[in-house]
Amino acid sequence: MIDLHTHTLFSDGVLLPSELVYRAKIKGYRAIALTDHVDYSNIDLVIPRINKVASTLSPKYRISVLPGAEITYVPPELIKKTVTLARKLGAKIVVIHGETPAETVPKGTNLAGITSGADILAHPGYITEKEAHLAKKNGVCLEITTRKGHNAANRHVASIARKTGAKLVLNTDSHAPENLLDAAKIRETLRRAGLKHSDYEKMRANSYNIIKRRKD
Ligand SMILES: [Zn+2]
Ligand SMILES: [Zn+2]
Predict the structure, then answer these.
(1) What's the gap in Å between 176 CA and the centre of ligand 1?
(2) In the CATH scheme, what is the code of domain 2-214?
């Protein structure tokens, strides 16, 4: 299993990176990205620390740990600049906190995220067909999420991806150990989103390709 969107106590997750990574390994994960919430207030504190722990844990626990960040509630016009800064600080996987139906995210976040150089537009809610076309063109993956609330638009995201050819990834947005991926959660999420097991395999390949692209 590959999961490119998780949180530790460097933002609002409940586990230390070491525990989250170890629990993921026990669950059978092959790769995990640590993508804590960042904006201009904490980006320079969080990413270097996540970097440090990721490079320590990867060889010890024999799981690929990717340092990342989720750019969250940054005004749309500043998202691109923030992505550039995140990369400069060492984030390999950059996720944008998209326009989920569960929260009031600034309008224009999806569009700004798609054109920012990020890897994944997380929980993009009722993303438009035009935005999905642009995501495809820019190589930005749209997220199918197992997270309650955000997952309300999964079926819409899956159908618009089918229509436009935009690529999907499956992530958990884990904030606690019980959020981590397992076979039952995958099956349930696919069923509710109207996706098949073959779609899951494609999503996994898309996640793997992001890792390949971003790894040194
Ligand atoms: Zn988010
Ligand atoms: Zn998140």
Answers:
(1) 14
(2) 3.20.20.140
